[in-house]
Amino acid sequence: MDQRGEDLEDRLLDFATRVGKLVEALPETRLGRHIAGQLVRSGTSPAPNYAEACAAESKKDFVHKLGIALKELRESRTWVKLILKSEMLSDDRIKPLLDECIQLCNIIGKSVVTAKANLQNPK
């Protein structure tokens, strides 16, 4: 894995850690527990899925596993937005995590597009 890949993996691991801390701060209400369960799954999944993509057995497998990481990030983004809209936690606690999630979606999304293009037009 090159330096950019390691940096991205570190960002995904940091994101997972931040999700874990956010989940612990959610209220112990029915909705809070539901969101916590969903977000802890989707928010901790992209890092290991990215690691799996980096060790993929083929280019097609790489695209597939990277796509899973993107889906999980998009799901996480939706759960974080729901926390924001339901005012469960303060905006200043949530917005930095939402911004990072959006950036990670953009990075992984661009990688998926590039990898798919490379599959269709091998050099």
Automatic annotation (TrEMBL):
InterPro entries: 23S_rRNA-intervening_sequence (IPR012657), 23S_rRNA_IVS_sf (IPR036583). Pfam families: 23S_rRNA_IVP. It comes from the Bacteria. This is Four helix bundle protein.
